[in-house]
TrEMBL record:
PROSITE patterns documented for this protein: ACT, PDH_ADH
Sequence similarity: Belongs to the prephenate/arogenate dehydrogenase family.
Protein's UniProt name: Prephenate dehydrogenase
Top-level EC class as recorded in UniProt: oxidoreductase
Length: 367
């Protein structure tokens, strides 16, 4: 497709969406806006967008599609703001928020003006946030849930899907209430469980400092998502309180059942409890796509000339700094590219940053 897309909120999801849209529609103009100037600059340097926003209202009013990629409280505010502007009749506004009921209620402001709003939620992500963590393959094979609103034309839903073809996601239309019940169970509720597990370990940590060093394996797997952005999760949980309260009540019942099994000391019953969970989970179509390993990344804005990568790896090697991964992010001829270098530790990244800034004039970013 040719035309103009505006992305508001250039974080993990906004940035990954920009990359996917440009992959599927190389001739598109993708304008990006973020309240953080730094994120906007990095988004442009990484080619997740083709240009930074100069006049958001004008750009939104002339766009083919506008994606709201901010935490959901901000998305509600943006819906209020944009609905007061004069959008063209062909403009589709969509979002990527993890909740849908409150967003769709707020979207009535668009419908009252005859504007087209299609709620969206790509079910893939990471505990990392910010545009630096963007990946073109983030949504590949993931479910991309859509909540079009009653009077939205089928042809507009198809037009939105065409813009999103580069995501390689599987689109699925759902009702907003059903959306919040399902994601409440499989996404929002696990997040609370992960955070509460970390809280429990933290309480013991003051009297037993060894605990955090021994908490590997299972604890690490279960608690990974507790490292996600607290602003995003504050907003999600505040949007889905009733469903989450009910799920937590059920969880208390589940825990009481486990206490009862332990009280009984019934080894067979305990075996069956674990086995039933294992059988069910082993048959779930859990996809591995979308997870981003947590390394310490450094981004270097490099000119596009032969030998520039070996120059940088050579400088790092000379100082004995090991790297675990190095990649160029979506460069095109005649413009600068961004070299993403992953280190194993924060200390290595810090040394890498000081090595590059003290021996070259290249700009470096960390997140
Ligand atoms: N992270 C995930 O795993 C994931 C997955 C699917 C959907 N989502 C949803 O996507 C949305 C974005 O999440 P993310 O992980 O990309 O967050 P993020 O923190 O990486 O990015 C959000 C960006 O929005 C910007 N922003 C905030 N308010 C703004 C405003 N008023 N105008 C312009 N920019 C503004 C922030 O500066 C930030 O750069 C959230 O609604 C979240 O619920 C997240
Ligand atoms: O992989 C992760 O870190 C995520 O938490 C991603 C995850 C999820 O719960 O599956 C988180 C919130 C989004 O709304 C969608 C995806």
């Amino acid at each position: 497709m040719e035309g103009t897309v505006v992305i508001i909120g250039l974080g993990l999801i906004g940035g990954s969406l920009g990359l996917s849209i440009l992959k599927g529609n190389p001739k598109a103009t993708v304008i990006g806006y973020d309240v953080q100037e730094k994120e906007m600059r990095l988004a442009k340097a990484m080619n997740t967008i083709t240009q930074e926003s100069k006049n958001l209202q004008q750009e939104v009013e002339g766009a083919d599609v506008v994606f709201l990629c901010t935490p959901v409280f901000q998305t509600e505010q943006l819906i209020e703001k944009l609905s007061a502007w004069s959008l063209s009749p062909h403009t589709i506004v969509s979002d990527v928020g993890s909740t849908k009921k409150r967003i769709m209620n707020k979207a009535q402001l668009f419908y009252d003006k005859g504007y087209t709003f299609i709620g969206g939620h790509p079910m893939a992500g990471s505990h990392k946030s910010g545009v630096a963590a963007s990946k073109v393959i983030l949504f590949e094979n993931a479910f991309y849930l859509l909540t079009p609103g009653k009077n939205v034309h089928e042809r507009d839903v198809d037009r939105l899907k065409s813009w999103l073809v580069g995501t390689k996601a599987k689109f699925f239309v759902v009702d907003p209430q059903e959306h919040d019940e399902i994601t409440g169970m499989v996404s929002h509720f696990p997040h609370i469980i992960a955070s509460s597990l970390v809280h429990q370990v933290k309480k013991v940590h003051s009297t037993q400092p060894l605990i955090s060093r021994l908490a590997a394996g299972g604890f690490r797997d279960l608690s990974r998502i507790a490292s996600s952005d607290p602003t995003m999760w504050r907003d999600i949980t505040m949007h889905n309180t009733d469903i989450l309260k009910e799920l937590l009540r059920q969880w208390q019942g589940e825990m009481n059942q486990v206490i009862e099994l332990l009280n009984q000391g019934d080894a067979d019953a305990m075996y069956h409890y674990f086995d039933e969970a294992k059988q069910f989970r082993d048959n779930m179509p859990i996809l591995q796509k979308g997870a981003i390993p947590s390394f310490y990344d450094l981004f270097v804005d490099i000119p596009d000339y032969p030998g520039v990568i070996s120059e940088i790896t050579g400088l790092l090697a000379k100082q004995g700094i090991s790297i675990v991964n190095i990649r160029i992010m979506e460069t095109r001829q005649d413009i600068n590219g961004v070299l993403a270098i992953s280190f194993q530790t924060e200390e290595d990244r810090r040394r890498g940053e000081s090595c590059i800034t003290s021996t070259t004039s290249y700009e470096v970013f960390t997140v």
